[in-house]
From TrEMBL:
Circularly permuted ATP-grasp type domain span: 41-416
Protein name: Circularly permuted type 2 ATP-grasp protein
InterPro entries: ATP-dep_Glu-Cys_Ligase-2 (IPR051680), CP_ATPgrasp_2 (IPR025841), UCP005522 (IPR016450)
Top-level lineage group: Bacteria
Length: 441
């Protein structure tokens, strides 16, 4: 039997034993499930990676400048590059962040950029995940287990080491840390879908894993309260909780997991928050359309990596094109995530297509449309236990860490669809994952 096939089963057994699970809410119930691992890696050459790295750094730097601009001078809006309604109607825009400058001017400290590789080999950006991008822990621990199962693989090949992600996080947190206090990863608890990742990254970065009730604000300073009741100053919070639930005194009043008065402390410059409050304004799928323009506007450079061909019903020409070609486009609801709200026109009958058209006519800001990219399939082992290799659609989530410098983690989360007829690869939609090998020179 194929050695790699045996590895898939062994690694998945270890991941199960180590509690590497992914939680989802379905029909009002929380269920945990294994995030299936496939041992055939995605391999990216050194030359290809260099171009990807440059493009990802360029894009992330432009996005950070955009977020700062939105909450300060608003030059890109005043100069007519982006219509104001696209900014201020964004679900991620926070009036509370107006005029607030985060430590070191960084808004998106950890960016998860989703890409696919077209059949011609070119890479295309699908989404920018800036609020709370997740998934780095899975390739980290899968490779950790693979090193034990087949250590010779990593001795005999020129694969860049992916064990430095914890150090990247630690260095970035130290850089933005205020007052030399603790670095904390703030989790809502074990019933969160990515709880395993919260605890794993805390271990690897040396940060304190803190739960609701363990972080308090006194006199506008933030403290961690230990088991014995001792208080320690907190200088940096890597939050794994959405903005609106982080401070019940500023946002959702009935949030039971937030930290009262955190926003006040943040505004006074007494604590760093990762990712910064309000950075979701650049996470919006409608704003995605404008990122190539941001790169030219802020950096005076041509984009190295390109968006998928995208249409906004806000513009008359795009509006007409979408309604006239809806059956061959992908329609995305800008407020959804995790693979939800993605509709392929080719899968709808005439009645459903007309209903979708009516929604777009009624709420044009709510949707974007994209051409279907026939992106590359990758080999995976079939689920039937035969050991046969089959081809499935796969994307790549690259992780970019912005601290003193902007750095791309030389790894990534490759997700694949287990459904032969699906382009949707998200874990919440039943997908699996594999390691991403970046080859050295």
């Amino acid at each position: 039997m194929d050695e790699l096939y045996e590895s898939s089963g062994t690694v998945n057994s270890w991941l199960e034993r180590l509690g590497v699970r992914f939680g989802i809410y379905k029909n009002g119930q929380f269920k945990e499930q294994l995030f299936p691992y496939d041992s055939i890696p995605r391999v990216i050459s050194a030359t290809e990676y260099k171009e990807l790295e440059k493009g990802l750094i360029q894009r992330t730097d432009a996005l950070n400048q955009f977020i700062y601009d939105v909450y300060h001078d608003k030059k890109i809006i005043k100069d007519g590059v982006i219509p104001p309604e696209f900014v201020y109607s964004s679900k991620g825009y926070m009036p509370e962040a107006e005029g607030v400058t985060p430590p070191m001017n960084i808004y998106s400290h950890i960016s998860g950029i989703d890409l696919v590789q077209a059949k011609d080999g070119s890479w295309v950006i699908l989404e920018d995940n800036l609020r709370i991008p997740s998934g780095a822990s899975y390739p980290m621990i899968a490779r950790q287990v693979m090193r034990k199962v087949h250590p010779s693989i990593f001795h005999d090949t020129r694969i860049l080491d992916n064990r430095d992600y914890g150090q990247l996080l630690s260095s970035m947190m130290d850089y933005v840390n205020v007052g030399g206090g603790l670095n904390v990863i703030f989790t809502p608890g074990r019933y969160n879908s990515a709880f395993f990742e919260h605890s794993y990254l805390a271990e690897k970065s040396g940060a304190v894993l803190a739960y609701p009730g363990e972080i308090i604000v006194e006199n506008d300073y933030v403290y961690y309260v230990g088991l014995a009741g001792e208080k320690q100053r907190v200088g940096c919070i890597y939050r794994r909780v959405s903005d609106e639930y982080m401070d019940p005194n500023a946002f959702v009043a009935d949030s039971l997991i937030g930290i009262p008065n955190l926003l006040q402390s943040y505004k006074k410059g007494n604590v760093a928050v990762i990712n910064a409050f309000g950075n979701g304004v650049a996470d919006d799928k409608g704003i995605y359309y404008f990122v190539p323009k941001m790169i030219k506007y802020y950096l005076n450079e041509e984009p190295i990596l390109h968006n998928a061909p995208t249409y906004l019903p806000y513009y008359k020409e795009d509006y007409a094109y979408i309604l006239g070609n809806i059956e061959k486009l992908v329609i995305k609801d800008v407020s959804e995530a995790g693979g939800y709200g993605v509709v392929f026109g080719r899968d709808l009958d005439e009645k459903k297509l007309n209903e979708l058209k009516e929604l777009i006519i009624k709420e044009p800001r709510r949707f974007i449309a994209q051409e279907v990219i026939d992106f590359k399939d990758l080999e995976i082992f079939d689920d039937d236990g035969s050991g046969n290799r089959v081809m499935r659609k796969a994307d790549l989530r690259a992780f970019v860490v912005s601290g003193k410098e902007t750095k791309v983690w030389p790894s990534g989360l490759t997700r694949f669809s287990r459904n032969p007829n699906s382009f949707v690869v998200n874990s919440s939609q039943g997908g699996g994952f594999k390691d991403t090998w970046i080859l050295g020179e």
